[in-house]
Amino acid sequence: MVTIHSFLDNIRKPIFLGFLLLCMDIIIFCMDTDKRDRIIKRIKPNEYSFVLELNQRYVDVLIPMDREELEWLVETAALFEIIYVDNFPAGFIIAFREGLNDYDFKSYKWFEERYPKFLYIDRIVIADSYQNQGLGRVLYKRAFDYAKENEINILAAAITTEPYNKKSMLFHAEIGFREVGNQCIRSNTVKISQQIMEMISNENS
């Protein structure tokens, strides 16, 4: 049972505070854009070209993706969803559960070797014209909801540090992620920060 005292104890925790700030930002975003129609839905084949083009736009900080890879991701991902604003595609999220033996990306394998249950945020990508409008936070809220529904306490992500993805590093720090390791990929040409966010349980400790 959650009491006012346990709530106040939790609010002192940095991770809980980050999650609370994220929720407040989403509320403010919804108030500011209440006249805009926003929908999040599972990807469909007619949206593949949008995803491929947007992924290519940021390929310097993302994993490259072709049509074959995309179709595999659609079949495999726990979340592969598009966010629409006023009926226009604005971005997407891809996330995986643990236990994918045929997904050989080093960052995912790193978490697989250390955590028995997690939701890996493979990527969240927002189109240029929709950035700085809170859509990334809305998609992360979707991931939080999925994690809660499936009793997952660890959200995992990898952020590029060489080349340095400043915006993503700041964003993840603000919502409560912390670094738990780092490694190099792509023949040591890219360095990534392995980060997790531990979800706060409603049960008293």
Describe this structure in words.
Helices cover 38% and strands 27% of the residues. It is of the alpha+beta class and 205 residues long. It has a domain at 4-35 and 93-198: Aminopeptidase. The longest helix has 19 residues, at 14-32.
What is the compact description of this entry?
This protein is of the alpha+beta class.
Total number of strands:
7
CA distance, first residue to last residue: 10 Å
Structural class label: alpha+beta
Please bin the fraction of helical residues.
25-40%
CATH class category of the domain at 4-35 and 93-198: Alpha Beta
The average pLDDT is 84
- Shape type: globular
Spatial sequence of strands, sheet with the most strands: 1-2-3-4-5-7-6
Strand content: 25-35%
How many individual helices? 7
> For the record, what is the CATH homologous superfamily label of the domain at 4-35 and 93-198?
Gcn5-related N-acetyltransferase (GNAT)
Q: How many whole angstroms does the radius of gyration measure?
A: 17 Å
Give a short account of the largest sheet.
7 strands, mixed
Which architecture name of the domain at 4-35 and 93-198 does CATH use? 3-Layer(aba) Sandwich
